[in-house]
């Protein structure tokens, strides 16, 4: 069997109706995983799941707003009812409602970022990891950002939340490693998604960004998905508590 096979695994992926999450779901399904497509829109989830099923994969769609603990619990419960216990948890959903200096962000926006981006990861891990451990192990992948590694004059709260993702991974890797649960982060650079559209559609920001990237371009969602498959599979079985940076070399060159 391939080191990258995910046959018979159940993968729950938040924020998977588009962008990086959708690419991760599609590639995990290709490797044999049964995937759960989840985002706020049931219609969008249904469409992505239907596409995966039409291509020979196995996918179900469960809408969930990560801001609400009861919806997160329902997401986990419905997954377990329909597919069985979760072997792979991908925490990809995140928000960024504010672009500008930290001095000017409202309390409401700051609190919303922390509640969504940090709180939902923490709560989902609490809900999912114990069953993973009881069954002999599993993998958690948190989609962070290079924003968590660098200072920012315009993405301060978001960057704080993404740095927290990395620390959550380290903490949980230590806590659950003895039970064979691995927890890692992926930190993408600028990727061509709707979430980052304000950055890559702005010619000045785009040119300033890619000028610092050795590959001189931004990334594509599929280029993040491969790392997620690695971390979820036997190929990544000795990797835990790490943050894999996928940014076209941007952080090493600027």
Could you describe the 3D structure shown?
The chain is an alpha/beta fold. It has one domain: NAD(P)-binding Rossmann-like Domain (Rossmann fold, 3-Layer(aba) Sandwich). The protein has nine helices and seven strands, in the order βαβαβαβαβαβαααβα. A seven-stranded parallel sheet has the order 3-2-1-4-5-6-7, with helices on both faces. Strand 1, helix 1 (about 20-30) and strand 2 form a beta-alpha-beta unit. Helix 1 (about 20-30) crosses helix 8 and helix 4 packs parallel to helix 5 (about 155-175).
Properties at a glance:
254 residues; alpha/beta; seven-stranded parallel beta sheet; Rossmann fold
Task: Please outline the helices and strands.
Elements: E1 10-14, H1 19-30, E2 34-38, H2 42-54, E3 58-61, H3 69-83, E4 88-91, H4 107-134, E5 138-143, H5 156-176, E6 181-188, H6 197-200, H7 203-212, H8 222-232, E7 243-246, H9 250-253
Parallel strand pairs: 1-2, 1-4, 2-3, 4-5, 5-6, 6-7
Short description:
This protein is of the alpha/beta class and 254 residues long. It contains nine helices and seven strands.
- The CATH class, by name, is Alpha Beta
Low-confidence stretches: none
Q: What overall form do the CA principal axes indicate?
A: globular
The CATH superfamily name is NAD(P)-binding Rossmann-like Domain
Number of separate strands: 7
The CATH topology name reads Rossmann fold
Structural class call reads alpha/beta
Order of helices and strands: EHEHEHEHEHEHHHEH
Query: Taking strands numbered 1, 2, ... along the chain, how are they ordered across the largest sheet?
Result: 3-2-1-4-5-6-7
Question: Gyration radius, to the nearest Å?
Answer: 17 Å
